[in-house]
Design brief:
Elements lengths: L2 E9 L11 H9 L6 H10 L3 E10 L5 E9 L2 E13 L24
Antiparallel strand pairs: 1-4, 2-3, 3-4
Amino acid sequence: MTVRFELVALALPAGCAPESLPPPVAALVAACWPGMSRTQLLDRARRLALRMSLRARPEAGPDGLQLYSLVLVAEGVRAELVAHVRRLARRRTAHRAKVSLPPPRDVRQQGLF
């Protein structure tokens, strides 16, 4: 059975301020939403000219979530985020899985991290 990943949240490592992120990485964080797949995350990173690496972290996350180290390289600058990911088992059917769409954005919350 194949496994599908679903993004729950992105977080900064301890001691890292949101202002220290390069602009392309901040744009990727703003473009992410809960429920997006690993493929959608990779696609967004490529659109912003980011190189991305997603690796499992040894510690367990809260509520059965898995923690992954998300390393992004933009313009020679390396930024690391913590991705909270839920593993979903994919059923073996002839139909493709329903794609997660971004939620509608409220213009008042554009600047929130």
